[in-house]
Amino acid sequence: MTILDKLIDIIYPPRCHVCHGFIDRAETGPFCKDCYAGFAKLSSPICTVCSTPFASEAQGDHLCEDCLRDRPAYRSAFAAFHYRGTVVKAIHQFKYRAKTYLSESLGRLMAEYAEGISIGSGNLLIMPVPLHPKRLRERGYNQGLLLARRVASHLKAELDFLTLRRARYTAPQAGLKKDERKRNVRGAFKVKDPSVVEDKTILLVDDVSTTGNTLNECARVLMRSGSREVFCLILAKAGDRSVFI
Ligand SMILES: [Zn+2]
Ligand SMILES: [Zn+2]
Predict the structure, then answer these.
(1) For residues 195 and 188, what is the distance between their CA atoms, to the nearest angstrom?
(2) Separation of CA 11 and ligand 2 centre (Å)
(3) How many Å is the Cα radius of gyration of the chain?
(4) What does the pLDDT read at residue 241?
(5) How far is the CA of 97 from the centre of ligand 2 (A)?
(6) How would DSSP label each residue in 112-177?
(7) Predicted confidence band of residue 245 (pLDDT cuts 50, 70, 90)
(8) Domains plus CATH for the chain?
(9) Which pLDDT tens digit goes with each residue over 58-107?
(10) C-alpha to C-alpha distance for 18 and 34, rounded to whole angstroms
């Protein structure tokens, strides 16, 4: 921290990125102690492919019923946090209240988590789940892209946010039943130029995943376009399938 930063902290005391209470930045970064403690890391037992948390601790990590029945097109989806506690508050502010500065702190948490995941080697391309232009106009930004930027710069990997596109507008997944969610995103994405993704390992980045249908559909078109493997990195995984996102 420079003298100028310290001076700015005295004039404008730093506030928590989530609850806006005053903080001691040296202790818990951009969050207050309570908010920092409220980030719940995703922990076992979870599905080894889609990361859905299991309610029962009777068994360790294993495949969930959905992945057993119909294996996703992606190799695995990694999630930094459970969709509960501080991360829910943070995502709502980030996504629906235009607090885009949260991409800095949340993106950093995601990037630090990404350092520890195993995603093969070489030819890595980071891609956000694209938003339809209509949704992009409404919100003004793609929250997935803001996070993907942080992850790419942290991992020193290439970022591509133009090749994977929305082919059509889809209704929000929230509120749809399981089979409706799958149908809703079927054919919703396209790869503009397959040569960009050919033989590449793709890391798809998004903020929240519930059933994983959107990630799976993105992975399906990427694999069909010649990608070597697709992994997913999400900030928070919802175990409750009826959760609002
Ligand atoms: Zn706070
Ligand atoms: Zn699963």
Answers:
(1) 20
(2) 49
(3) 18
(4) 45
(5) 31
(6) HHHTTS---SSSEEEEEPPPPHHHHHHHSS-HHHHHHHHHHHHHT-EE-SSSEEESS----STT--
(7) very low
(8) 38-237 (3.40.50)
(9) 788 999 999 999 999 999 999 999 999 999 999 999 988 888 989 989 99
(10) 10
